[in-house]
Structures are given as structure tokens and as C-alpha cells.
Amino acid sequence: MSTSAVILLSGGMDSTTCLAWARAQGMTCHTLAFDYGQRHRSELAAAAAISTALGAASHRVISIDPHQFAGSALTDANIAIPHAPGNGIPVTYVPARNTIFLAMALGYAEVLAAQSIVIGVNAIDYSGYPDCRPAFIAAFRQLAALATRAGVEGQPIAILAPLQDLSKAEIVALGEKLGVDFARTVSCYQADEQGRACGQCDACRLRHQGFIDAGRPDVTRYD
Ligand code: ZN
Q: Quick one: pLDDT at residue 1?
């Protein structure tokens, strides 16, 4: 039986690999991106292009008032994007972002009668972001079962995090195996309008190291 899924697609390497993974599982994929006033606007264009290229059935962008996420370096141009890892939760943390994104995806999945939601959280993210931790995903799984008609009627929407235990290098390897063209993906926190990466922020650094550790050429487009 063919199943369908809502894929949270930011246009970066992790969510793109998730979409390719879900397609490889035979899922009908409905991709979902969020316009929340992020500085790296070009990721939205990347997400739309990737959705089409990887054969998603539909692509939708939900706009969220940027004030919801005030105070993050990703939404406030007055807060500098750090060029070196610091201690604690990074300033690029966006307040409760994954809770809000997953809540939107949950409603959308129930409307579509989709069986699953796929999110690209992984071992690298959850060292710094509370809403990327396995415990958070497990808690949201419980919430999804309790909060929806689908759940109450015995068909809870599954929250799938296929990259959860993978390093960046393992994500590079998995994506390449699935035919992902990483040159199309935008991970940089301050990518330019053409989606070219700065090469200096945390996202760029982790991504570059992922290619090195995987023994693969870094195909990222840098400015
Ligand atoms: Zn960057």
C-alpha cells in the first residue's frame, strides 16, 4: 500500500536527504516549507526547486509572522552569525521552532490523511538545539497520538526522524546513495540571494566537515 507523508523541507542538506529517503521508501511526499523571516531567504527557493526535482506530489509554504521568532540570529540582522562554535545553546537557536513547525505539519498531515511526518533532525543538531533532541521527538510523537482524530481513532500520524542518529558525514553518504544533488541545497545561515554559502558560519563549517569526513568533494556553491 502506498503511504503519504508530509516532509519538512528547509532546502538544506538534511531535509533534502529526508525527502529523498521518503521517496525511496515509496512514499507520496508533500513538502512543507516555512517563511518565518529567515535571513537566508534563498533556502525557500532551493526548497521549492528540490521538491520538484525529487518528485514530491506538492509543495506548500506557510508564512509565519517573523516577530514570533524575534531574538534569533537567524531572523534578526542585528545579531551577528557566529563564525566559531560557542558554549551552550547557539544564538542561531530559533525560539520553539520545531514545536511550531511540527504542530503545523501535524494539522496539515491530518488534513491530507498522510500517515507520517518526516523531519531531518540529527545527531549534530541536538548537541545545541533543545528541539532537535531524540527526547523532544519522542514527546512530540506522544502528542501527535493524543492530539489528533487520527490518533484517537487508532492511526496516529508517525513522526519519522530517519537522520536522528547520523553524523553529517553519514548524511552526506546517505544522500549521495539516494542521488541527492547537494549543490542545489542551501545550508548556510547567511546564504546570498543566489543561495551561495558564506563558508564561515556554523552551518557551513559542519557541512564542509561532513564532506571531508565522508571523503567526498564539497560541492557547495560558495560566494
Ligand atoms: Zn554560511
A: 58
Dist. CA 109–CA 114, nearest whole Å: 5
Helix or strand run (H / E) with residue 118: strand 116-118
**How far apart are the CA of 71 and the centre of ligand 1, in A?**
19
* 160-178 confidence digits (pLDDT tens): 999 999 999 999 999 999 9
Distance 10 CA to ligand 1 centre (A): 15
Sign of CA dihedral 60, 9, 24, 142: negative
Instruction: Retrieve residue 53's grid coordinates.
Output: 526535482
Q: Which domains does the chain have, with CATH numbers?
A: 4-181 (3.40.50.620)
- If you measure from the C-alpha of residue 201 to the centroid of ligand 1, how many angstroms do you get, rounded to a whole number? 4
Dump pLDDT digits (tens) for 62-96.
Answer: 999 888 877 788 888 888 888 877 778 888 888 88
Tell how far the Cα of 166 is from the centroid of ligand 1, in angstroms.
21
Residues with CB under 5 A from ligand 1 (ion): 188, 197-198, 201, 204
Please give the grid coordinates belonging to residue 181.
Answer: 544533488
Rounded Cα distance between 174 and 24, Å, is: 11
